[in-house]
Amino acid sequence: MPYRISRLGLVEIRSLDLDRDLDYYLNVLGLQLTAREGKTAYLKGWDERHAYSFALTESDRAGMVRMAFRTVDPEDLDYYEKRLKDFGIKYDIIPEDYRRGRALRFTAPSGHTVELYNEMDYTGNVLPTVNPGPWPEGLRGIAPPRLDHTLVTAPEPGKAIEFFQTVLEFRLSEMLVAPDGTIIAAWLWQRPAPHDLAIVPGKPGGFHHAAFVVDSADALFRAADILAMHKARIDYGPGRHGITRGTTIYFFDPSGNRLETFGGYTAYQMDPDSRAIRWTQDQIGPAVFYYSQELNETFLSVYT
Amino acid sequence: MYTITLKPVGSTIACGPEESVLAAILRSGASVMFGCRGGGCGTCKMRLTSGQIAHGRCSAAVLLAEEKKCGRFLSCQARALSDLTIELSAANKYHVLRSWRRLSLLDC
Lengths: 304, 108
Prior knowledge:
The structure holds two protein chains of two kinds. By secondary structure, chain A is of the alpha/beta class. Chain A has two domains: 5-117, 2,3-Dihydroxybiphenyl 1,2-Dioxygenase, domain 1 (Roll), CATH 3.10.180; 147-288, 2,3-Dihydroxybiphenyl 1,2-Dioxygenase, domain 1 (Roll). Helix content of chain A is 17%, strand content 35%. Chain A contains five helices and 17 strands. Chain A has helices spanning 18-29, 74-86, 157-166, 217-229, 284-288, and strands at 5-15, 32-37, 40-44, 54-58, 63-71, 92-94, 103-107, 113-117, 147-154, 171-177, 183-189, 197-201, 207-213, 234-240, 247-252, 258-262, 277-280. In chain A, the strands form two sheets. A nine-stranded mixed beta sheet of chain A has the order 14-15-16-13-9-12-11-10-17. Chain B is an alpha+beta fold. Chain B has one domain (2-103): Roll (Ubiquitin-like (UB roll)), CATH 3.10.20.30. In chain B, 17% of the residues lie in helices and 30% in strands. Chain B has a five-stranded mixed beta sheet. The A-B interface holds A 16-17, 60-63, 233, 235, 252-258, 297-298, 301-304 and B 33, 35-41, 43, 57-62, 93.
């Protein structure tokens, strides 16, 4: 089965104070600003080629507005439109959005607004396209190269996981199973990486975190230093997950949305015939926090 | 400096005008349940029984207008404007850290 989604293309979250939070996203997290249009700022990592991958919109609350996945080819959008029809999923066609073409918008059983799109302005990364160096100088903050994945909550995670598997053809890389075999949480992928999306139990539409790539031990500890120097609230880490093997720092933006640095250098790559790894519920400690081997108080209870 | 009385434990702590109630409690050598520390998740919610606070910037999804009227506030955002009395619940998981007691030679 070919994969038709190239990446998690966009996460949009809410900010209680856009001026304050934008300063944090530009100077502490170190994203690149594409544009600020009214109450929304459009951002991206320095190595991302399309116009933006992250949007912050001012609101009276925190949490997720939407997630959007980019298809590999334009025809894949038609393919998914047919699948949404075949499965009787109600969707809206969004003719255009900021620097983006047609999108299909629907609500997943988890309560999240999900979009699929293909066209977005190709603006290039910050490096030259001819004879580039390996990385740009003069970046500020943690400066992750790109958005990696998001983790969201669902009151009936099994239903949400099945929706993404069946209708959108995501595959499971790893899953957490109850003693009776029920899937409690799952890590889902289409591009060859451990996950583009993960779903855990919680309220409908809940936003657990969005993760940005920080791909070496040096960069991981440098990221932790920067967060602490700016007195950012670190929830956990630096550490490592049993699930995905990725390194992690969980931290919060000034409005209380959880973010993560996720380590590519320890996370494996998926092959098309990879089969899902199972974690048993009694091992959720090392599955989530490999070094402390215990779940902390906040992992499943604190999110926006 | 204002004085915060924490009921039912009966501890009293000092709180400066520029620090959050949560910061004052943590600085006193206690542990208490909190989450994002940004006013977004609602984990650090407490109940005020007397005194005046400034609520700060809190998500309307986790601190409802009717809750504010009943004295609820997010301790990570709220600042004291007078001496305060706070009624802690089990969900606040307040306890004085054993290491802090040792440091203060209170409980050797």
